[in-house]
Task: inverse folding
């Protein structure tokens, strides 16, 4: 006779004294219960999954968006060759109707430059100060109420704006330089974006602005293949933005979807052909003497790829942005206006 | 986590239910043979409960952390990202301004960066250094005169080993490089000065291409070369390359994917020009003879699969394998732990001569270590 689990004296049996066999029916029942528990747990987990992560109600309310600064009408593009930045910029804008076609009296203009590094102008790692000066002057001459120059540099901001010459150039023409500070950032998300989700964005300079101009040099970039007008918006991000290097092409595509400028200026007067984005040696540069102005940042970058002597297949973000509907890869379809200045 | 909690609960409950059933079940001698159920001990029950409580705490902690996640906090707290120099690194901890001539003065404080924040200084180029053993960057700007027109910046990369420093130096060598006799590996350009010395790779970049700035940068380079440890300044493999037709300053060290072959890493090369043709000699230490022989087999297989065909070489080159591929010749052989050879040469005879001299320069001692055979350069 086997001992029962509870013998007549009320003492509990010790483990190890009991037969461990179960019937097939009990095994089946237990297995089904366990499978059901597992399935229910997985279903619960799936249902509760939140890709964006938890946000407090306060955070969700703080999120900002920026308007579309593009003007109505089709995309336009001009390509002007010459070595004088002031002249080529002026001619390129004239070809598209002049600065007055873009900037009206009392407009508040924001110019996003590339001041990423504390690098001298001759290295072409940053927006050339001559271009900043000319563009600021043109905007103010067109009657703009204000012109603000902005970037969130990689290096120390004060050093960057000083050593690139951008700060002095802007202020000499009556434009104002904004040095980014923490309280100027607000979280932003790209609708249906996978990367730009509740990410710090340099928002404060955008308040009250109704025209946005991007100005960038043509540069090689070790990670993305090139740094031009679409990559220029990277300088509006805050936080530990270098994590996006892991998926840089998609990030640049999302930036181009997020930011719709009035027009962009792509400076290919001196192109950084290698060792980008910092360069360092004059031998990294080539005098390509080309200024590109466009309302289509994809088309502008496609022209820039040619100056870098790179096929578009080597600069994936351009095709991605085109596929996302940001602009046109086939810039010739825009029937660019071409000119040359001496 | 939920699964574990529920699974544990279920098991416990199942056990309890069985026990409950058990108490009202038929006695063990029931003719249909209903089995006895195991009674969990107090210890087992305690452990189960402890696991459940621990899992609940873990879940709560995760939810709490997630609810506070905010990528803006790093910039809003203004935490410094500049690191102090690490102690115990190769090379002394020093300030770059000590090496500056009196004609220049520091512009701002010295900056120091480690692997975690190197991209804060050089952005996307950081990966080039991180992939090759980067330890630390010291950067300092110097100005000449009161305005901000004439200045330069010194970048001193501690790369951990002399070979790593040389690798960066050779791979990033600028066109128009003008060799300067400051260190074995040093050159200047119209606005820069570049040097690999010991574990340090040093770049200096000027705001304008003026003789004064070049002179100041060269002075700093000279002072640094004189101060940095010399014992780590040699790369003995470089002496193995034959000197005839060798292009000055053409040594390079490729850490990965040499000649388009993913298995070939840590390869030293030197460029030669003969009869108007340019080609490379190469050398790589594979750590053991077996590994060297396997690498040769793999590399030759790669060449054959890429459209090459094996060819014979002249007598006097034992163990040398030769492949004719896409109009060029490739010769490769092993000696001890080394593989060596000639890459992309148009003229087979030139390749054989170079391979023979390279082979003769490598001499195995009885204990298997490698020495340079003097007199046969």
Result:
């Amino acid at each position: 006779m086997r001992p029962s689990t509870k013998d007549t004296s009320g003492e509990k049996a010790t483990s190890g004294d009991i037969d461990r066999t179960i019937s097939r029916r009990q095994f089946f029942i237990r297995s089904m219960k366990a499978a059901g528990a597992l399935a229910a747990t997985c279903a619960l987990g799936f249902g509760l999954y939140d890709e964006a992560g938890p946000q407090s109600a306060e955070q969700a309310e703080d999120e900002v968006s920026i308007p579309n600064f593009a003007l109505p009408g089709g995309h336009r593009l001009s390509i002007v060759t010459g070595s004088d930045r002031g002249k080529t910029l002026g001619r390129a804008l004239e070809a598209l109707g002049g600065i007055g076609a873009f900037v009206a009296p009392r407009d508040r203009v924001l110019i996003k430059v590339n001041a990423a590094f504390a690098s001298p102008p001759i290295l072409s790692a940053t927006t050339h100060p001559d271009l900043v000066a000319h563009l600021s002057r043109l905007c103010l001459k067109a009657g703009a109420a204000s012109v603000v120059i902005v970037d969130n540099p990689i290096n120390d901001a004060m050093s960057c704006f000083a050593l690139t010459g951008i700060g002095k150039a802007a202020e000499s023409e009556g434009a104002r330089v904004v040095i980014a500070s923490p309280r100027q950032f607000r979280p932003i998300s790209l609708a249906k974006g996978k990367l730009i989700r509740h990410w710090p964005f340099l928002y404060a300079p955008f308040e009250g602005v109704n025209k946005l101009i991007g100005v960038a040099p043509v540069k090689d970039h070790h990670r993305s293949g090139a740094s031009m007008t679409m990559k220029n918006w990277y300088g509006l991000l805050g936080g530990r933005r270098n994590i996006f290097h892991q998926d840089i092409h998609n990030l640049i595509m999302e930036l181009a979807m997020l930011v719709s400028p009035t027009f962009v200026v792509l400076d290919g007067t001196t192109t950084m052909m290698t060792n980008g984005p910092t360069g360092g040696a004059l031998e990294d540069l080539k005098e390509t003497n080309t200024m590109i102005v466009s309302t289509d940042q994809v088309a502008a970058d496609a022209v820039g790829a040619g100056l870098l002597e790179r096929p578009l297949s080597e600069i994936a973000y351009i095709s991605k942005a085109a596929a996302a509907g940001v602009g046109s890869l086939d810039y010739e379809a825009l029937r660019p206006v071409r000119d040359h200045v001496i | 986590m939920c699964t574990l909690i529920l699974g544990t609960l279920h098991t416990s409950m199942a056990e309890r239910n069985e026990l409950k059933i058990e108490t009202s079940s038929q006695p063990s001698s029931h003719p249909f043979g209903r089995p006895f159920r195991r009674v969990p001990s107090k210890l087992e029950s305690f452990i189960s409960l402890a696991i459940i409580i621990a899992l609940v705490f873990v879940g709560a902690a995760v939810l709490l952390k997630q609810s506070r996640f905010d990528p803006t906090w790093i910039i809003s707290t203004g935490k410094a990202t500049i690191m102090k120099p690490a102690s115990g690194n190769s090379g002394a901890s020093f300030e770059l301004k000590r090496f500056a001539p009196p004609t220049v003065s520091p512009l701002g404080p010295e900056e120091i960066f480690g692997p975690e924040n190197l991209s804060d200084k050089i952005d996307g180029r950081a990966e080039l250094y991180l992939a090759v053993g980067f330890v630390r960057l010291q950067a300092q700007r110097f100005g000449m005169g009161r305005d901000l027109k004439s200045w330069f910046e010194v970048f001193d990369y501690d790369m951990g080993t002399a070979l790593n420093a040389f690798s960066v130096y050779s791979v990033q060598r600028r066109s128009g490089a003008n060799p300067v006799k400051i260190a074995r590996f040093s050159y200047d350009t119209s606005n820069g000065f570049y040097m690999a010395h010991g574990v340090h790779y040093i770049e200096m970049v000027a705001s304008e291409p003026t003789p004064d700035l070049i002179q100041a940068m060269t002075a700093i380079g000279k002072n640094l070369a004189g101060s940095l440890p010399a014992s780590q300044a040699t790369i003995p493999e470089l002496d193995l390359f034959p000197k005839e037709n060798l292009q000055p300053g053409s040594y390079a060290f490729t850490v990965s994917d040499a000649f388009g072959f993913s298995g070939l890493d840590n390869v030293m090369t030197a460029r030669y020009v003969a009869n108007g043709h340019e080609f490379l000699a190469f050398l790589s230490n594979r750590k053991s003879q077996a590994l060297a022989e396997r690498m040769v087999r793999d590399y030759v297989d790669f060449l054959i699969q890429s459209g090459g065909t094996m060819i014979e070489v002249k007598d006097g080159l034992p163990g040398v394998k030769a492949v004719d591929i896409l109009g060029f010749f490739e010769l490769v052989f092993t000696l001890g732990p080394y593989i060596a050879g000639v890459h992309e040469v148009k003229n087979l005879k030139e390749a054989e001569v170079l391979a023979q001299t390279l082979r003769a320069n490598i001499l195995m001692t009885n204990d298997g270590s490698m020495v340079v055979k003097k007199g046969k350069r």
Observations:
- Residues 130 and 172 of chain B are 14 Å apart (CA to CA).
- Residues 42-67 of chain B form the longest helix (26 residues).
- Chain B touches chain A through 59 residues (CB under 8 Å).
